[in-house]
Write a structure and sequence with these properties.
Helix content: 25-40%
Radius of gyration: 29 Å
Number of strands: 8
Order of helices and strands: HHHHEEEEEEEE
Distance between the termini: 103 Å
Strand content: 25-35%
CATH class of the largest domain: Mainly Beta
Structural class: alpha+beta
Length: about 170
């Protein structure tokens, strides 16, 4: 008996049509897994590639590797007398972790109208370690602040930052 070529070619076409739907499905699931991993492991990714922090922040997923936040920053000009002014900066450092966290020094910058830094100094940390979810207040003073100060920016000092300390 001679095999019917039409039926075998139909079988081959049927199997290729069904496997043709598998590849796009696998690609879809691979993309889902890659996307989920990219979101779940963002702290590790930012630690190894710090430039990616800006990308995550722009997507509404900021990454905080230090586990600390600065809250309630206030700056005011005090007049101690003799026509000398003094800028007093206060606020709190908050441990966001459920474990003890090391506290770095603070980097404080006074900025002008155009957001350029007019003067920068480093304030000593008020405490070297914070317990789980602990808060600590900080206070720093700058004698004779430069003219034209419009705002103050307080950040955690980067490891190795070298600057002059005040107070």
């Amino acid at each position: 008996m001679i095999p019917d070529r039409r039926s075998s070619s139909r079988r081959d076409r049927g199997s290729s049509e069904s496997s043709g739907g598998v590849a796009p499905t696998l690609v879809f699931f691979a993309l889902i897994i890659a996307g989920t991993t990219t979101i779940a492991a963002r702290a590790a990714i930012v630690k190894s590639a710090p430039a990616t922090a800006a990308v995550y922040a722009s997507l509404g997923m900021p990454v905080n590797l230090r586990g600390l936040a600065i809250e309630g920053v206030r700056a005011k000009i005090a007049e101690p007398g003799d026509d000398a002014q003094e800028l007093v900066v206060t606020g709190e450092i908050v441990n966001l972790r459920q474990s003890e966290t090391l506290v770095p020094d603070l980097r404080i910058a006074v900025r002008g109208e155009d957001q350029r830094e007019l003067y920068v100094w480093t304030a000593r940390k008020p405490k070297s370690r914070l317990g789980p979810h602990e808060k600590v207040a900080f206070r720093s003073r700058l004698a004779a602040p430069p003219v034209g100060v419009r705002d103050v920016l307080v950040k955690l000092a980067a490891p190795g930052d070298k600057a002059s300390f005040t107070e």
